[in-house]
Design goal:
This is Phytoene synthase. The protein is mainly alpha-helical. Helices cover 71% and strands 0% of the residues.
């Protein structure tokens, strides 16, 4: 590996360490080559997120619109797949793409999801939101399983479903932050179903109707999680320690929200670092035991 490429991977590692508040603890059980590959994928996705949030428009290239930045990043993805990357992230990613044969269309779907954040501030139906969740979360999981390795097609369905589940938890956690930015991800059809208006949400009214609405969202996230688990065959989890840890951390965050009766208006739900580390080790040991010590035992859902 050349010094330039080594520097590119080091940069991706630093991006992940700085920004991946939940994911970083899930990556620590991967062998180093796969861990470095995941860092490159994460850094690419993080760059897309920062474009959506406006960070690069103001810091890296002042005066450029988000759409211009995304167009330039699309071109950089083309450069990456053509073997001519110019950014440190895509220089690392090019090696990962070559090694693991990552499908380009997943990265393109991610960018379409980022583009949705440019223009859509409300989702009328869950079907519309589900497409967004697939693009910004599921495709990341679908890329990652190509690096983890898998034997059965059901693992792809697992990645799709678990991504949607985690993104729904993200949306619940970030209701206050999104509302203050003028954005509502909770489907408007759900608000109407629970007699909770858009005005109620914008004014952050914590009512019995809001609690019922959030209980419904939590049940939906849980349903996707359980469907993801049901799509796996015995032995599949051996290669899925990382996403299982991520799911465990996110589900612990959901349980934290539930313990506070869904009052997400008073602060952003989060977990202490030691709790995340404990969840990571517990799930790792559970999967290891089910794989090597209890091979005939039917896997159960990890509790977080």
């Amino acid at each position: 590996m050349s010094d330039r490429v080594a520097d590119a991977f080091a940069y991706c590692r630093e991006v992940t360490k700085t920004h991946a508040k939940n994911f970083y603890y899930a990556f620590m059980f991967l062998p180093k080559p796969k861990r470095e590959a995941i860092y490159a994928v994460y850094a690419f996705c993080r760059y897309c997120d920062d474009i959506a949030d406006g960070d690069y428009a103001s810091e890296e290239r002042p005066g450029l619109l988000k759409t211009d930045l995304l167009k330039a990043w699309r071109q950089e993805l083309d450069n990456c797949y053509a073997g001519q990357p110019t950014h440190r992230i895509t220089q690392a990613l090019h090696h990962v793409v070559e090694q693991y044969d990552l499908p380009k269309h997943y990265f393109e779907e991610l960018m379409r999801g980022v583009e949705m954040d440019f223009t859509i501030r409300r989702y009328e139906t869950f079907a519309e939101l589900e497409q967004y969740c697939y693009r910004v979360a599921s495709v990341v999981g679908l890329l990652c399983i190509e690096i983890f390795g898998y034997r059965h097609a059901g693992v792809r369905e697992y990645a799709r479903l678990i991504g949607i589940s985690l993104q729904l938890i993200n949306i619940m956690r970030d209701v206050k932050e999104d509302v203050e930015a003028g954005r509502i991800y909770l489907p408007l059809e759900d608000l109407r179903a629970f007699n909770y208006s858009e005005a109620d949400l914008l004014q952050q009214r914590y009512t019995a109707e809001f609690i019922a609405l959030m209980q419904f969202q939590a049940q939906r996230a849980d349903d996707y999680y359980r469907r993801a688990q049901a799509s796996l065959l015995p032995g599949d989890k051996r290669g899925l320690v990382t996403p299982e840890i991520m799911a465990g951390i996110y589900r612990a965050t959901l349980h934290n929200i539930q313990r506070h009766d869904y009052n997400v208006f008073t602060g952003r739900a989060s977990l202490p670092v030691l709790r995340k580390v404990a969840i990571a080790f517990r799930i790792f040991l559970k999967i290891w035991a089910e794989t090597y010590l209890l091979p005939h035992r039917k896997p159960s859902f990890p509790n977080a």
